[in-house]
Design a protein that fits this description.
With 432 residues, the chain is mostly helical. It is 78% helix and 0% strand.
Length: 432
C-alpha cells in the first residue's frame, strides 16, 4: 500500500535517510537564496504588471480592457507550450548561466513592450517574455532544492518564493503608481533596467549548482534494462492538478482586479496602487505564516489557505456596497492566497524524488502558468458575457473543488498508510 499512498500524499513519498547521515553540514546559503529571490521578484513583476496598468494600456493601445487582460494569457500560454521542450533542450546547459540569459531576455521583452506601437506588437513582446519565463521557472523551481539538504527545502523555497510575494507587495504596486504618474511605458523601461541589474547580481552572488544526474550514462548492457517508473510521479501529477485549478480560479479574478476595484467597489484611481500594496503586504504575512507555523504542517496550511481565500472572496463579492468590509476581505484574501504557492511548491519538491525534481519543477511551472493563462482567459469570457460581478463567484466555486480534492486525497493517504503504521507498531515475535 505504500505506492498507493504516494498518489495521495504530496508531502513526501520516498523514504529518506536522515539528512545528518547522508549530507554534510554546511552554512545555509542565505546570499544565494536572496539573490534567487530577487530574480523571482523581477520575473513575477514582469508577468503581472499589466494587471495594474490595465486601464492605461487599454486607452493607449486602443483596445478593450479584456484584451489587455489577455496579455497575461498570451504570456502564460507561451510558458505552457514552451517550458517543457525548452527545459529539455537546455538540460545540458549550466543552470547558473541560464538564469542570467533569461533575465537579459526579460529585459529585451520589456523594452519591446515599452516601445510597442500596436497591441499586436505588445503581444509579440509578451510571447518572447513567456518563453524566457517558462525556462526561468523550470530552472528556479528546483534550484533552491539543489542548494540545500532535503530537510531544509521548505525553508529555502519560502525564501525563494518570497521574491514573488514581494513582487505583489512592491513590484506591481510601484509599477502601477509609476504608470499612473509617468505613463505605463516608462514602468516597463525601468523594469527592463532592473532586469539587467538582476543579471549582474545573479552572476556575482548566486552559487552555481551541478545539473542533477540520475546516474551514470547507460552502458550497452544497461541500455537493455528498462528503468522502473519513478514511484513519486503520481504525487507530482496530483499537485500539478491542484495547482492548475487553484490558479485558474485566482487569475480569473485577480487579472481584472483593477476594474473591480474601480467599478465594483467604486474606489478612485489613486487608491488602486495603495490597495494592491496592502494586498501584497498581506501576502507577505501569509508567506511568514508558512515559514513559521505551517512549514511542518503543509496539509493543514493548504486547507486553511484555500478555505480562508474562499471565505474572503465571498465577502468581497457580497459587500461591494460596504467599502470597509470589502477592503478587509480584500486584504484577508491577500494573506490567505500568499500561503498557497509556497505550500504547493514545497509539497511538490518533497514529493518528487531527486531524480525527477528538475522535470517535476518544469511540469509544476506548466500547471501554474496554464492556470494563470486559463484564468485570465476565463475572466475575459465571463466579463464579456455575464459581467465582472460574477467572476469572484466562479473563483469561489473552483476553490471549493480544490478544497475537496485536497481533503479527500489526504484522507485516502492516511488510510493507505495505516497498515504500515500498524505493522511497525507491532513487536517482532519471529525471533522469539
Amino acid at each position: 500500500m505504500t505506492n498507493t499512498a504516494n498518489i495521495f500524499l504530496p508531502t513526501g513519498s520516498v523514504p529518506a535517510v536522515s539528512a545528518a547521515k547522508t549530507e554534510p553540514t554546511s552554512p545555509f546559503p542565505w546570499v544565494g537564496l536572496i539573490t534567487l529571490s530577487a530574480a523571482v521578484f523581477l520575473s513575477v513583476t514582469s508577468e503581472m504588471l499589466p494587471t495594474g496598468l490595465l486601464p492605461e494600456m487599454s486607452r493607449s493601445l486602443g483596445v478593450g480592457q479584456s484584451q489587455i487582460g489577455l496579455l497575461v494569457s498570451w504570456f502564460a500560454f507561451t510558458v505552457v507550450l514552451t517550458s517543457a521542450p525548452v527545459a529539455i533542450w537546455t538540460r545540458r546547459f549550466p543552470r547558473h548561466g541560464l538564469i542570467i540569459v533569461v533575465l537579459i531576455i526579460f529585459a529585451v521583452s520589456n523594452i519591446l513592450t515599452a516601445i510597442a506601437p500596436t497591441y499586436e506588437f505588445v503581444v509579440a513582446a509578451r510571447v518572447l517574455g513567456g518563453v524566457a519565463h517558462g525556462l526561468f521557472w523550470s530552472v528556479v523551481g528546483a534550484y533552491a532544492g539543489h542548494l540545500v539538504p532535503r530537510a531544509q527545502i521548505g525553508r529555502a523555497v519560502s525564501i525563494t518564493v518570497a521574491g514573488g510575494t514581494l513582487a505583489f507587495v512592491f513590484g506591481v504596486p510601484l509599477g502601477t503608481a509609476g504608470g499612473h504618474l509617468l505613463g505605463w511605458r516608462l514602468s516597463f523601461v525601468v523594469l527592463a533596467a532592473l532586469m539587467l541589474v538582476g543579471a549582474v547580481l545573479v552572476w556575482k552572488f548566486l552559487p552555481p549548482v551541478a545539473r542533477y544526474s540520475s546516474g551514470a550514462p547507460a552502458s550497452a548492457a544497461g541500455a537493455k534494462t528498462r528503468q522502473p517508473r519513478d514511484a513519486t510521479v503520481p504525487a507530482v501529477v496530483l499537485i500539478c492538478i491542484i495547482t492548475g485549478i487553484t490558479m485558474i480560479g485566482h487569475y480569473s479574478f485577480y487579472t481584472y482586479i483593477a476594474p473591480f476595484l474601480l467599478e465594483g467597489l467604486g474606489v478612485g484611481l489613486g487608491l488602486v496602487a495603495p490597495l494592491l500594496f496592502a494586498y501584497g503586504v498581506a501576502g507577505a504575512v501569509g508567506l511568514l505564516l508558512v515559514g513559521t507555523v505551517f512549514g511542518q504542517r503543509p496539509s493543514l496550511g493548504l486547507i486553511l489557505g484555500l478555505a480562508v481565500s474562499a471565505l474572503s472572496v465571498t465577502l468581497l463579492a457580497l459587500f461591494t456596497a460596504t467599502l470597509a468590509i470589502a477592503i478587509v476581505a480584500f486584504i484577508l484574501w491577500g494573506m490567505a492566497f500568499g500561503m498557497l504557492p509556497p505550500l504547493m511548491q514545497t509539497r511538490m519538491l518533497h514529493a518528487a524524488s531527486p531524480g525527477i525534481r528538475d522535470t517535476a519543477a518544469a511540469f509544476y511551472t506548466t500547471a501554474f502558468n496554464a492556470g494563470i493563462g486559463g484564468g485570465a482567459l476565463l475572466g475575459a469570457v465571463l466579463i464579456e458575457r455575464v459581467g465582472l460581478d460574477l467572476v469572484p463567484i466562479v473563483y469561489v466555486g473552483l476553490l471549493a473543488v480544490v478544497l475537496v480534492i485536497v481533503i479527500v486525497s489526504d484522507r485516502l493517504a492516511a488510510v493507505a498508510l495505516l497498515p504500515d503504521r500498524v505493522s511497525r507498531s507491532r513487536p517482532d515475535r519471529s525471533r522469539e
